[in-house]
Fold these 4 entries.
Entry 1:
Amino acid sequence: MSEKLRVGILGGTGFVGQRFITLLEDHPFFKVTTIAASGRSAGKTYEEAVKNRWKLNIPMPDSVKAIQVKDVQDVEEIKREVDFVFCALKMAKDEIRELEEKYAKAEIPVISNNSAHRGTPDVPMVIPEINSDHLKIIDVQKKRLGTKYGFVAVKPNCSIQSYVPPLSALKAFEPEKVVVSTYQAISGAGKTFKDWPEIEDNVVPFISGEEEKSEQEPLKIWGHIQNGKIVNATEPLITTQCIRVPVSDGHLATVFVSFRKKPTREQILECWASYSGKPQELHLPSAPKQFLKYMTEDDRPQTGLDRDFENGMGITMGRLREDTLFDYKFVCLSHNTLRGAAGGGVLTAELLKEEGYLLSRKEKKAGVSAQGSH
């Protein structure tokens, strides 16, 4: 078996950082060697730093409890202990953008859960089943940064993971207009019901910045590489409303869509049933065997029942009907901290490894070039 890559988690004490840690326990490709956070946590063991703030309903892995937390600003020290890092920091966007590039320029690849670099034209924003071809832009980015191994890749916002995959499966029919409302879990705000008792028996019709991301980020995913940058798609036109609802995990969306070439209901269902991508082709460890699943029951998908489909990495859809104003409407669901956050980041890292962008110490010493090689 090849050497496992050494992984650092920036922002490892937060909700998404905790998800990364649990997903990487006994991972076949990766091993957590470093956890970093703000200066307040630096020097403490991970168990001490988190204390009573462990938010998941599964226990903290024993393998990380004694790891001494480092300050995220100590890039040179962290560089000695990692082959790449996941970033789940909560900081000002400009500070995250600067810090992620600092890591990349120190030859540490960064796979980020943050939005800071999602708009950067030479940074791929990836849903691995949909736009794995965008990884090619990394070679352009490395030239800009002056690096051999270092780069930044990002995953998109959790709010779009429920509806972008089923729409991507229907791209041949040229979606023109899309109206989406998302009903988003409190874990998307890094909260539990213990942290946020006010959300019980309540709905909050506003999530800062979420609607802009939900309308714009799909266009980058559906874009193309031209003249050294990712050029956003111009269609479909998307308008959204994003609402916080009192559920622990799972973002549900209602979708209305019109097509330039209207498909039949049977064609839509066939496209969904057969859709897959590079992760399935490569049999990546975190890849769902079935990416999209249509549920025939009138009252499905339900957040509490269906968010864990394919270990939280699959997307479920239901209630596909013709509409009086649009061509069709349907409901879809994704797990926001698995597919939408840490799980999506891990799957992206698995793809980057298999495509030759993430290398071990041994591979670097052997002079392997850090670029797509498969």
Note: The chain has two domains: 5-157+341-365, 158-335.
Entry 2:
Amino acid sequence: MLNDSPGRGKIRLTRRGRGALLVTGALVAGAAVAVPLLLLNDSSERPEAVVIPEGWRTSQVYKAVDKALGVPDGSSKKAAAKAKLKLPHEANGNPEGYLFPATYPIAEKSTPESVLSYMVATAGKKFGTAPISAGAENNAVSVYQTVTIASIAQAEAESKQDMGKVARVVLNRLAQGMPLQMDSTVNYALNRSTLHTKTADTKVESPYNTYARMGLPPTPIANPGDEAMRAATSPPAGDWLYFVTVKKGDTRFTADFEEHQRNVDEFNRLQKQQGKSASS
């Protein structure tokens, strides 16, 4: 999403978008000169824009907007509850998934409500296109459900190339009446991000626990970007039902449970080895 540009600083985002960003330089074709928020703590300079990375949760977006506008923590969350955001009916007023990742300008008169409204309007334009509608219809889901699938693909896939396969796994499991069993939805329920999900975690009482509940979670679990939406609307053909990232750059998809279990065992073995190396 971010291109390298000359300026006061740069940061490379992970796919889960760690750390909020602010823009203090000129905007160039949607790109921005981005610096970590902490670098601005001792400066009175107000940023010209706020950058929202793909895959951020709404809670992260709220914090970034609060920081960009210099308003008290929690202001954007309160504004979202009061604002008449143009969200789909299925959202029930929850903007998760519809605060579209992009670079948004900050003006002197900008407020949390105006910035959030801009984000939702951008999502409306992005998600209201014919390809999105056609893809959703072809997959036998609604556009809102497509955004939810895209948010899961964004959170689960190690690379952009794997997003489509993850989306296909979700659709295959829905078609076969299988629980999704996605760690990313459990992480959302527990308000955390981790690769290690324990058995106790999969029993948490939450509508986002896709181990215990059938179907998609009630809302998206993050705000997906263009790549994830393309993956969710046009996933590759495949019979995959399982996947696991055994190690960086090695995500294995399969339709065979026994093969998947062998892959999981290898993942656990490698994790154990890394743990021993770190403690030695």
Note: Residues 1-43 have pLDDT under 50 and may be disordered.
Entry 3:
Amino acid sequence: MDNETVAGADADSGALGVRLNWLRAGVLGANDGVVSTAGLVVGVAGATASSTVLLASGLAGLLAGSLSMASGEYVSVSTQREAEKAALEAERRELAEQPVAELAELAGMFEARGLTPELAREVAEQLTERDALTAHARVELGIDPEQIVNPWHAAWASFASFVVGALLPLLAIVLPPTHVRVPVTVVAVLCALVLTGWVGARLGEAPVRPSVLRNVVGGGLAMAVTYAAGYLIGSG
């Protein structure tokens, strides 16, 4: 194992983890858009057959949900970004004040991962000469200084994924004829939940069947409850 291989291993695994986290977040955002909007429009459909009311309520739910997701993600990722920047600043200060101790610490971490003491020391020295902060940040903190999370990117991604998911039940409830709009919406939503459950399970390396089943049962229950509530209000 050469030092280039060791140096790239943490960077590659970290970058892959970031990409998978973004994909999972996108799938979850789309899933939330499907379930929340479906519950809303099916509930309204239980109370009224007006396409205008259904469209208005669906659009309101889409906008409210997507903006809420975006703002929540922005706040969450901003906090994470501030924590990462603080950790990097602390590491930069330690490297300036205690370079020998930091070098020994880095070598010790490589040795703990299975390298011989001699190779661990050589790798640590070469990485430190190249970019000490990046080496320590990747190995010790699990942070790539060149890939600090961006709260605006996270907010837009959450907004977009929610909108994509919400558009399915919204279109399914307003486009078909009145007498089949609820069954069409239910079938479309359940199919979408099967897909998001399957993708989410594969990305998380979890069993597919339980994930899909939870997704379908949860979404189906949400639509059943909101439709029943809307029907009772509309007929009252």
Note: The helical segments are 3-47, 51-97, 99-112, 117-141, 151-174, 181-203, 208-234.
Entry 4:
Amino acid sequence: MTLSDVVYLAVGIGALGAAVIPRLVFRQPLSMPMVFLAAGALAALLPLPIVEPGRDRLWVEHATELCVIVSLMGAGLALNRPVGLRRWQGPWRLLGISLPLTIAAMTAAGVLLLDWPLAPALLLAAILSPTDPVLAAEVRVGEPTDVEDDEDEVRFSLTAEAGLNDGLAFPFVLAALALAAAGGGASGAGWIGHWFLVDVLARIAIGVAVGIVTGWLLGRMFFRARPSALRLSEHMEGFVALGATFVAYGAAELLLGYGFLAVFVTACTIRAAERNHGYHKVLHEFTEQIERLLTVFLLFLLGAYLVEHGLAALTWQGALVGVLLVLVVRPLAGWVGLLGAATGPRERVVTALFGIRGIGSLFYLAYALGHSDRFATYADQLWSVVAFTVLLSVFLHGAAATPVIRRLDRMRRDSPTPP
């Protein structure tokens, strides 16, 4: 028996489990991520090699990167609500108010609880700020439908927020890198102007522009191209979604824009090109299957890492930071951000509570550690805090998602108008 034999067996079992487990845990206070995270923890007890993020950082960065961009394409394709200030007011508020509040509060927690300098504290806050509904299917918009505005406000807001803040958290990661390069103190503020003009304004604008142009061109090709060979919507081939994902991401990154943002905008633009076409469902189903396989794989490895290395490096202060984020900071920041929005109090509470942390946070950390050696001293603690926070989020949100969303749906049916 060789290691490759074990890998083939494990991958096969994982793929079958990814297909079967969601159906087994349907309508139960359990989720597929919970199952595979626990399976990875149990696998760590076997005499098998374990992925260690510090040693295998580059591999972790690209694996999580792939998972994130595939999930962003699926999220954008699922949304049928046209973009607008009023129609998207929930996501705009979560991005414009809740995200900065979360980053500010978590930076303070890093400084006060962990006794870290400002730069690593800001990095930790930026890494943990994005939501990741991919880890709880009950709280995101499902497959594309033909009905405009069919998404309920909770699922829509969380899906759109996750699609956009995976890109909008990036400037704060880069701010932490710039702050560390400047000496780590608030006094060396010369980097702020360049950061705001380039990393915030220019790179966001490039990401959005690439997404719009790519989505418009692909939408024209998919649905309106004169040669039938180019009119891919007639052929119903789902793997085209990967091509669209990679084109948008690669083009944006080559132009020094935010690829995550470009992928999500591309998906939304493709959906807007022909909202009622069944091809969107084909594309979405393919991305969902790939995303599920990648998520299963990564969470299995994360569970093994936590048992083997991660929890050993976790301090009580680091664990408290994760608990504060999941149970206090995100719920309060989400609630504040949604005050005044055209939703009922029940929807505001649920949206604020389900700020799920996941694969995106792992990517940001791997990226940051690969682009600066100034955080090497804090690397083990960063990995342990981030991994523990993801663990906590997966189990708390995974257990609560099904009963909470089912109850909310039932109350919405009984009382359609928010109280």
Note: The chain has one domain: 56-414.
